[in-house]
Amino acid sequence: MRITAALIATGVALALAAPSRAAPPKGEDPDWPCEQRVVPTLGAATYWSGPQVAETGDWGAEPRVAALVQQIAPRPVTAEQGEAAIAKFADALGAGDDRKHLLSLAFAGLLAETNRQRSAIIARLKDLGHRQHDLADIASHAGEELRTIPADATGADAARRADLEQRFTFVTQAFTSTQRTMRYACDIPVQLDARLGRYARALQAHL
After folding, report:
1. Engineered SS bond to 12: which of 7, 31, 133, 143, CB 3.0-4.6 Å?
2. Taking the model in full, what pTM does it have?
3. Contact 115/42 with Cβ under 8 angstroms?
């Protein structure tokens, strides 16, 4: 079925949406697709005022700490669930335990796991941003060529127009689908940041 003029206009607008973004500040990745500024790695000092994380040692070598981190670091775990687990962990520490050391190790583990998750998400978002630029270029070129072929063309021109219409429809649909995915994914690093902040405050409350 032939693509309508309205769909062509809508598709071109969608295709040109990504390139129309303001040029990123110097030094920033042009493929970063989110309004939020990209922060590749979270630093301990932003969240933690307890003992120096760099001096705590290997959090994974302490079984109780590793179990806590593995329990509350996964993305589906809510901040409320994590805070409850932190309180339970802290309450279970005995008089002979080095409370500050264990709670600092727990923060070090949560920071490391949060950064690992964020790195994977940021890489995926950059891939999606690059894909959007490519799709926009393809749709823009197809749209320009479509406008040069009359809707009532016959013969080879009609076949070429039909091919362009099919390609244009596929590309604009892919662009729209990826755009929806990015709107959701762009919020994930922010959510992880906020959850880490709540975990840090919960741990520090038990120092």
Report:
1. 143
2. 0.77
3. yes
